[in-house]
Amino acid sequence: MDLRFTEDELAFRDEVRTFFREALPPSIRENIVAGHHTSKEELVTWTRILHDKGWAVPHWPVEHGGTGWSPIKQYIYLEEMSQTPAPAPLAFGVNMVGPVIYTFGNEAQKNRFLPRIASLEDWWCQGFSEPGSGSDLASLKTRAVRDGDDYVVNGQKTWTTLAQYADWIFCLVRTDPDARKQSGISFLLIDMKSPGITVRPIQTIDGGVEVNEVFFDDVRVPVENLVGEENKGWNYAKFLLGNERVNIARVGVSKERIRRIKELAAQQRVGGERMIDQAEFREKVAAVEVRLKALEMTQLRVLAGEAKREKGTQDPASSILKIKGSEIQQATTELLMDVVGPYAMPYIPEDEIDGRNEPSIGPDWASTIAPAYFNTRKVSIYGGSNEIQKNIIAKAILGL
């Protein structure tokens, strides 16, 4: 298999690279390079720029706003976006619920939701995990009981990322409590403004509030918001999680972080020697780069086989991408901790960085390194923990 880019693909890469460099507002890029979270306003601004260009949802079918690019061009696009670095469009809409709707939804749902997802007029969040139902997602207990033209939903979701901004939430709910646990689940689209929904923030170890608890108390959801068939939601969830795991590989993000590691290590001196010149540190960086190259080759092989797969199915090799991608992301933040050294210890919350009175301890970039390291511990858990991915690989690939 020849995994080298063609002349056409190389020309496309140059086009994408030039557009990102010229179209991305400098303030947004600087914010990402500094390690700060992208705000809602920044993400909306950038998504609208991509939407005006026709590039907000390149992997979608052309009839729904996609570009018709090959899987390889889509990969190049994401790679260049990550290395600009520019924020990726909101994954919950673009990569998760959007593909579920255009693959399994009806025409009314496609017409209603897809244009607003592409332009980020609607902000979506994901209602899967519950207390006690994380990696064992099929054990979820949130109930949806049919009452005329509505479902009445009761239950709780947790670790709901960015729910504080959301207009809509896509939820897995139990519609048949007597069925086998994977067989009694449905996929509902729920308006976050519905009476009976409560959102409570959860502060994470990095001091941020990006995840939430979401409570449903007698929330009425129109039956027309059911995606596909009742009690078939587990199939749609597996399709969605397969898409999520491919994107969790985040090869471009890790490449950009390694570039940043080398840049900062060239500035830091230990014992009079630049850190980048120390043999032990260089060996650590090289080891991660080798693993990242292997991950990149694996992702390209998965993409090369995409056209051969049945519509609505996912390659179980996406679980490999999830495992190795998350491990490499964590390894890169560990290297950043090596670079920053003791200056990682003083913690300054992000919203206080610009307003503090005391001078910085260490270089200006030091304050975001430890929060990023701790926050990245979650990557091997969300989207299906790495332990669960190993079970999938054992069954679906190795046949054990």
What does this structure look like?
The chain is α+β, with helices and mostly antiparallel strands and 400 residues long. It has helices at residues 7-23, 26-33, 40-53, 71-83, 91-104, 107-118, 233-248, 251-265, 279-304, 318-340, 369-375, 386-396; strands spanning 124-127, 143-147, 150-157, 168-174, 185-191, 197-202, 211-222, 269-270, 273-274. The longest helix is centred in the last third of the chain and has 26 residues, at 279-304. It is globular, with a radius of gyration of 22 Å. It starts with 6 loop residues before the first helix and ends with a helix.
List keywords for this structure.
alpha+beta; four-stranded antiparallel beta sheet; three-stranded mixed beta sheet; 12 helices; globular
Helix and strand succession? HHHHHHEEEEEEEHHEEHHHH
Query: What percentage of the residues does DSSP assign to strands (E)?
Result: 5-15%
Helix content: 40-55%
Cα gyration radius (Å): 22 Å
The N- and C-terminal alpha carbons lie at a distance of 28 Å
Please, how many helices?
12
As laid out across the biggest beta sheet, the strand order is 2-3-7-6
Q: Which class best fits the helix and strand makeup?
A: alpha+beta
Describe the main β-sheet briefly: 4 strands, antiparallel
How many DSSP E strands? 9
Mean pLDDT: 90
Low-confidence stretches: none
The rough form would be described as: globular
